[in-house]
Design goal:
Family: Belongs to the DedA family.
Pfam family, one: VTT_dom
Strand content: under 5%
Number of strands: 0
Number of domains: 1
Structural class: mainly alpha
Membrane topology: Multi-pass membrane protein
Oligomer: single chain
Radius of gyration: 18 Å
Distance between the termini: 43 Å
Number of helices: 11
Helix content: over 70%
Keywords: Cell membrane, Membrane, Transmembrane, Transmembrane helix
Subcellular location: Cell membrane
Order of helices and strands: HHHHHHHHHHH
């Protein structure tokens, strides 16, 4: 992430906003790209004054909402065979086990999987294409997609912006304070992600997962 942040810092602000929107948008279409790393790096750059946090958040939200919508359209047209082809192309990210877990989440939570999926790496990539392939009603998908994209983009950006500003202030006087903050943030985020993963439950095969249509009815 440090390398990404250093690379972005050498670019004009307008280019950074376009990269944030583009990477997150393509990731949301179903292609595993480091969208969250780009967002985090850009938010930390905003804390140093290189870019404006509101434009970073707007770019991230736009990329997330538009990318998910395109992914939905592609998934609805291509169906499950498309997801299987993506799994063969990216087996470490979208293999059969990943797809089964994502389907299980949709079967349990319906469109809420789209909203909360924005905060989980696997579902952030698969939410749009999978919702389209499983014929989730588009209006419900759009509401959950837009809400999740806005909360994720603005929440992540401004949280890291203020944390970065605070850490920069502390580091001027007490160098160990920034280190402690970074360690605590890492521990908290790791614990939260593990708890989220446990809540998803054990991975089921696609045949075992309950059809999404049954949940939506």
């Amino acid at each position: 992430m440090v390398d990404v942040q250093h690379w972005l810092s050498a670019l004009p602000p307008g280019v950074i906003y376009l990269i944030v929107a583009g990477v997150i948008g393509v990731e949301s279409m179903g292609v595993p790209l480091p969208g969250e790393i780009v967002l985090v790096s850009s938010a930390l750059l905003a804390a140093t004054g290189v870019v404006q946090p509101e434009w970073v958040a707007i770019a991230a939200a736009t990329g997330a909402i538009v990318g998910d919508s395109i992914g939905y359209a592609v998934g609805r047209r291509g169906g499950r065979p498309l997801l299987q082809r993506l799994g063969r192309r990216f087996p470490k990210h979208l293999g059969p086990a990943h797809l089964a877990r994502a389907e299980q989440s949709f079967a349990r939570h319906g469109v809420w999987a789209v909203f909360f999926g924005r905060f989980v790496a696997l579902l952030r990539i698969l939410a749009g294409p999978l919702a389209g392939a499983l014929h989730v009603p588009y209006r419900r998908f759009l509401v959950a997609n837009a809400a999740g994209g806005l909360v994720w983009a603005f929440g992540t950006t401004y949280l890291l912006f203020y944390v970065g500003r605070a850490a920069e202030h502390w580091l001027k006087d007490i160098s160990w304070a920034g280190l402690v903050l970074a360690v605590l943030a890492g521990l908290v985020s790791t614990a939260w992600l593990r708890r989220r993963a446990k809540r998803l439950g054990p991975v089921e095969t696609p045949d075992q997962a309950e059809p999404v249509g049954a949940t939506e009815r």
